[in-house]
Amino acid sequence: MHIWLHPLLQRAYYIPVLLAAMWFGWRGGLLAAGLSSVMYLPFVVWTWRTSPAYSASQYVEVGMFFVIGGLAGVLLDLERGHRAKVEDTARKLSEVYAQLQASFEQLRRADRLTALGWSRIETIDDDLGRSAAGGVARAGFDRMVAEVCLGKVGAVAAREVSRFARNSRDWQQLVEMCRVVDTLLVDQEAIYAPRQGNDRLLLGLKGSLNEYELDLLRQRSRPYLFSNSVAPAVGGASLKVLDILQYGDDLRARLQENTTWFRERMTGLGFEVLPGDHPIVPVMIGDAARAARLADLLLAKGVYVIGFSYPVVPVGKARIRTQVSAAHTQEDLELAVSAFAQARDELD
Question: What's the CATH number for 234-347?
Answer without folding.
Answer: 3.90.1150.10
